Amino acid sequence: MRPKLAFSKPLDAPAGKVWELIIDTRTWPVWGPSVKAVDCRQRRITAGSQGHIKTPLGLWLPFRVTMFEPGRYWAWRVAGLAATGHQVDPLGPERCRLSFTVPKWAFGYGIVCRRALMRIDRLLAGEERKEGS
After folding, report:
1. pLDDT at 133
2. Which domains does the chain have, with CATH numbers?
3. What is the phi-psi region of residue 30: left when phi exceeds 0, alpha when psi lies from -120 to 50, beta otherwise?
């Protein structure tokens, strides 16, 4: 396996909830700064899922899920290139750590990963407020 860089954040949410968020293609444009739209037959990805994502520049690029460990990890290729890995690690019943990994050659993408982690954190906090209302 090629060396990778990891960007992670502990989240105040159950691992299962975070997992459902990151496999739901309808939420990708909400938390993913590099995804403006998704065209995929499946709402929730699984091993081998494929489709297209629309980038902020308006380009539609093909993607394919290349690794999938339910509830734990998924990775994909975008436009034929190894892209982000997505990992959820439980830290307790109501906490987990979400990590994104990228190939070392894509170190600049870390900015996008950090922004995505912050968006997910805010999104989960907003859902908590809604549920508590």
Report:
1. 46
2. 4-132 (3.30.530.20)
3. alpha
